[in-house]
Amino acid sequence: MSVQFDWQEGNEHPSAAWSDATDPLPFPSEPPRTIVSQAAGSRRRLRLSRRWLALLAFPLLGVVIVVGVFLWQTRQGNSAAQRDIDAVAQQALAAQQAADRDAFAALLDTSDRAWREATLAAFTAPGPATVQVVSVALDATNRAVAEIQQTAADGSSLRQIAVYRRGDDGQWRLAAPLADDFGPAEQIDTPNFRLTYRTQDKDTLRELINLAEGAYVTLRGDLRSPAGTRLYDLRLIYEQYPALPTSDRIIAIPSPWLAGVTAAGRLTPAYEEIVYRQMAMTLAQGVAPSSSPALLTVIGDWAAASVQALPPTADERLQAARQDNRWLSLEVAWHEVADHNTISSDATIAQLRSMLTFLQIYAGSDAVGRLLQTLESQPPRARELGLLLDQAVGVNLAAFEHAWLAWLSGVDPIQPGALSG
After folding, report:
1. In terms of domains, do 296 and 314 share one?
2. Segment (H or E) for 48
3. Are 263 and 294 contacting, i.e. CB atoms less than 8 angstroms apart?
4. Which residue in 111, 200, 363, 376 has its CB near the most CB atoms, within 10 A?
């Protein structure tokens, strides 16, 4: 198979010439001036942008370096402070385990005398099995806020916030906490309280509100506290040892993180006792405003003991007082506390606390409230315990004390409610 071309020389168009062929993609010999000027402007702006970026990069790099150095120095400072504070915590633990109160006192800051005295008064031995400083945050005033984890002999852990202050001698010492160490203040209203707290305690808030509302309902009935028309002022305070109530509308309770929370951040049984103690003292003051501070202390101790509801035979303080012959008659113990505002020993508190527990068991759940109401209605010279018991619950003091002593020994000579008036 072949292809035949019929084209012959001379058949081309007479006007067609190679030199006259038209280019199908013509290009102008010179680009338009607008395009050239735009391209030149873009190149100039790009050069200017690069120059500005270069100029800005140096100060920004300087800021990054300064911040990085500051953070590094902060971490280094925190690490050094944590090591020093941990050493102080270990010394304090050794002092507790050795029951060396003087050695413990040497580790306390001296700038707040009241806090120092209260801390020494609360000194206990032997203390936890181990102590560890988990974290430290420094401020600009030679103070450090530390999270401490204590582990008991049974393996249970307690987390707390503790504050340390570096003295002029460079030594870190345990110091009085300040409210600002726990973050900004916030408020929330509940059915019965206006609660003021710091952000450090925010995670425990739901559990705390449930505890406070439950304690209020229980104690209001037990103490015959009148219903209020406005919310109680419930304040989380950031002093380790709260004072007695100054108002029957203000309930002051230590911060959970100051008292200590579990390893999981939950409230402890000991904290539940604190809530009951502080709330009972405030409500009792509302029922009997003339009550002595010593009597309010006994009322608070009675309420705290009700949390565990231990039998009297399990009350170590009480049984030790009986064995050591540190025993007063109920009339003398009541007179000392209610009339003279004195507490001669822990045995007196334990004695009267158990008396109130016995009174409530055998004379009705609101018997303590009736006793306080009767106390408030009597003139100062008519407040002997025998007269109050007779008017409040209709029982003779001698019979009551006899039944109470038998109850302390684990014997129930009468049925609950048998002393009810």
Report:
1. yes
2. helix 33-97
3. no
4. 363
